[in-house]
């Protein structure tokens, strides 16, 4: 049997739009970038959950 | 009283988890997957429990409180049709609309020509599965969402707002529901999280079964690449909903991967190679997977034996439970196997006799959880469920 490894895709699982892409659209960050990234990805996780749960559960 | 329920909960949790680890608990755990049966018992119809999840929750709690069951699913009538209607999903028949009030909701796979994904779209799916779902799949699967490039509409915008908020409200309600089961009934929530195999998702919701079977012959490499692309996402979804305490398993609903839906070669070259690594990774993360093996999987049990010992619980539907136990019982716990027709249409004595045979031949060394073969809907006899429960409690003591 062929061995298949689980890929690490882009965008990564859990987000629809990666922080790295969003960051390019923002003005230079004066504050805490980690905080911006964390909140961005937390909200992305909701959008990601929405479509995958529609597909899998509903 | 609350302390008694907590004590009961802890006893049941230990019993259920011990059996799922393929060990011998104090007695055989009972974990019936009761869906529309709960409505029948609690005095609701199918429309009510499908379209108002608070009624479904109430029915589940009533059953858990009245029956001596170790674990139940917090809402086995899982599809809240209020949510599917808010999103505009085309593929459900809702009780009281397209089907009678007292028929359970139905999934209606579209005809091949109306499949939500076309045969030449495998590359697009594989390149960005999440983007494909939002941009291509959902506009086709929903009556409300418009195609990318078309003018947006009021109804399109409302679909996302209502769908998102409704989904969140539904998911957020599960925490209190699980807590109610624990504090009011002493009953364990049986599973946590959802998983489906890459191939099954292609068959169920994207290409449709008939379209996919054609693709398996006409473009098998594309099917394989799409399955590979789905793997990390399905793993992520499974782990994100898993039990943080690592007690109860992730539910895996198995649909189209067994013979004769596909042949052995397709299982060996496509279905299994894109499923096995996910199960292994889930196990590496400390979670069991409940293989809810709808249909007949006897031909594939050898493959499942490749998985780490104890990594799955095999739920037996149409297979011969006694043969399944002989083949894989030494490595994995087993659940189910009581034919639904027996629970629906036969006598309590026949139910007791079948349970006795299971207890004598399958459950004798532990590693077994009592349940029907398939999810129990409203044709199941209340009297027979009582017989199953009471007999297992009396006779199923180690």
Query: Which sequence of strands runs across the widest sheet of chain B?
Result: 5-6-7-8-9-10
State the helicity of chain A in percent bands: 40-55%
Compute the CA-based radius of gyration of chain B.
21 Å
Determine the structural class of chain B based on helices, strands and strand pairing.
Answer: alpha/beta
- First-residue to last-residue Cα separation of chain B: 27 Å
Stretches with pLDDT under 50, minimum 5 residues of chain B: none
- Average predicted confidence as pLDDT of chain A: 96
By secondary-structure content and strand pairing, the structural class of chain A works out as mainly alpha
Estimate the mean pLDDT confidence of chain B: 97
Reconstruct the topology from this structure:
The complex is a heterodimer of chains A (58) and B (398).
Chain A: H1 19-23, H2 33-57
Chain B: H1 2-20, H2 36-42, H3 46-51, H4 53-66, E1 71-72, H5 81-87, E2 92-93, E3 106-107, H6 122-127, H7 129-141, H8 154-185, E4 188-189, E5 194-195, H9 198-206, H10 209-218, H11 220-240, E6 250-254, H12 264-271, H13 276-284, E7 289-293, H14 301-304, E8 312-316, H15 321-328, E9 333-336, H16 340-345, H17 348-361, E10 368-369, H18 382-395
Parallel strand pairs in B: 1-4, 5-6, 6-7, 7-8, 8-9, 9-10
Antiparallel strand pairs in B: 2-3
Helix pairs in contact in B: 1-8, 2-4, 4-8, 5-8, 10-11, 11-13, 17-18
């Amino acid at each position: 049997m062929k061995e298949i490894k689980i890929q690490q895709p882009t965008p990564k699982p859990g987000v629809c739009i990666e922080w790295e892409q969003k960051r390019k659209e923002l003005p230079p960050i004066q504050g805490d970038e980690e905080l911006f990234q964390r909140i961005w990805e937390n909200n992305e996780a909701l959008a990601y959950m929405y479509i995958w749960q529609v597909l899998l559960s509903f | 009283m609350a302390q008694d329920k907590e004590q009961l909960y802890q006893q049941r949790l230990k019993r259920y988890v011990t059996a799922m680890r393929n060990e011998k608990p104090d007695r055989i755990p009972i974990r019936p997957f009761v869906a529309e049966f709960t409505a029948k018992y609690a005095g609701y119809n199918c429309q009510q429990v499908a379209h108002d999840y608070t009624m479904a929750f109430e029915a589940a709690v009533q059953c858990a409180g009245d029956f001596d069951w170790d674990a139940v699913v917090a809402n086995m009538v899982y599809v809240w049709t209020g949510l599917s209607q808010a999103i505009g999903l085309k593929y459900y028949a809702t009780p009281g609309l397209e089907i009678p009030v007292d028929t359970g909701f139905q999934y209606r796979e579209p005809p091949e020509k109306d499949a939500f994904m076309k045969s030449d779209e495998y590359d697009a799916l594989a390149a960005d599965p999440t983007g494909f779902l939002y941009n291509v799949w959902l506009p086709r699967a929903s009556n409300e969402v418009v195609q990318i490039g078309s003018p947006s509409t009021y109804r399109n915008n409302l679909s996302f707002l209502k769908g998102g908020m409704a989904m969140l409200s539904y998911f957020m309600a599960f925490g209190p529901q699980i807590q109610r089961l624990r504090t009011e009934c002493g009953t364990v929530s049986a599973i946590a999280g959802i998983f489906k195999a890459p191939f099954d998702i292609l068959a169920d919701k994207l290409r449709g079964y008939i379209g996919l079977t054609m693709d398996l012959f006409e473009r098998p490499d594309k099917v394989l690449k799409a399955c590979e692309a789905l793997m990390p996402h399905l793993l992520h979804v499974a782990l994100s909903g898993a039990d943080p305490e690592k007690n109860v398993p992730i539910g895996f609903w198995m649909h189209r991967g067994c013979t004769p839906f596909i042949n052995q070669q397709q299982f060996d070259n496509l279905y299994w190679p894109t499923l096995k690594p996910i199960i292994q990774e889930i196990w590496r993360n400390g979670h069991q997977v409940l293989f809810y093996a709808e249909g007949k999987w006897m031909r594939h049990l050898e493959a499942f034996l490749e998985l780490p010992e104890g990594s799955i619980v095999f739920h037996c539907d149409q297979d011969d439970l006694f043969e399944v136990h002989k083949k894989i019982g030494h490595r994995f716990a087993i659940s189910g196997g009581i034919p639904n027709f027996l629970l629906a249409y036969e006598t309590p004595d026949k139910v007791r006799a079948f349970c006795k045979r299971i207890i004598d031949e399958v459950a004798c060394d532990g590693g077994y959880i009592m349940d029907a073969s398939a999810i129990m809907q409203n044709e199941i006899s209340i009297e027979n469920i009582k017989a199953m429960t009471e007999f297992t409690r009396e006779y199923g003591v180690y």
